[in-house]
Amino acid sequence: MKKTLFAFALLAVVLIAYPILNQSENTDVIKGLPWQIDVMPDGSTQVFGLHIGKSRLADVLGILGDDDVELAIVAASDETGSLEMYYGHYKAGVIAGKLVVRAGASEQDIKNWRENAARFEYMASGQAKKYTLSTGDLKSALNQVVTGLTFIPLLNLDEEIILSRFGEPDEKIQLGGAMHYLYPKKGLDIALFEEAKEVIQYVSPQSLH
Predict the structure, then answer these.
(1) Is this structure's pTM higher than 0.70?
(2) Range of the domain at 126
(3) Which of 37, 66, 92, 142 could form a disulfide bond with 58, CB atoms 3.0-4.6 angstroms apart?
(4) Are residues 202 and 174 in the same domain?
(5) Coil, strand or helix at 198
(6) What whole-number distance in Å separates Cα of residue 199 and Cα of residue 189?
(7) Closest to 71 in 3D by CA, of 152, 144, 147
């Protein structure tokens, strides 16, 4: 059975968020919740106030703030890497978690930013490096467009919560030790793991076709 015990440090968050996740009353009064995804007239989506494919990283700072945020290139040993903005403590409405904002950038730009990096360090896994951008490269990096978001909630999700809040998925796929709930029209993929934290990913719906 999946573990559902939470650390005492999360107790306040649990007490607030549990009714929101499990009750059926209207929660429109609370903004920025993970399932509040706006589909725009052109088929693109907006979540957490960010318009995927339109908003730039500079907009992210203006909308989500610049507290507890890191901007870096993250790359495995055999990859060029990707430009990511990381919020270690983010609240989606009242649901706390971690948020990663990915941005599009050319391979050449990423290589240049890596070469000019102020410093680099190994990630906790030891399988990838994080390159902190130099001050001179920040302006061009912040001008890059958001291509996707990954939200890792501190609360444990289960299928009942997913279906009640996000609705019935178009498809369910067992892949890589997780059950994926796919909502292509919303650019949404929820990965429900048995032994690891759930991951909610948002991308442009057009990228799924």
Answers:
(1) yes
(2) 56-144
(3) 142
(4) yes
(5) coil
(6) 8
(7) 144
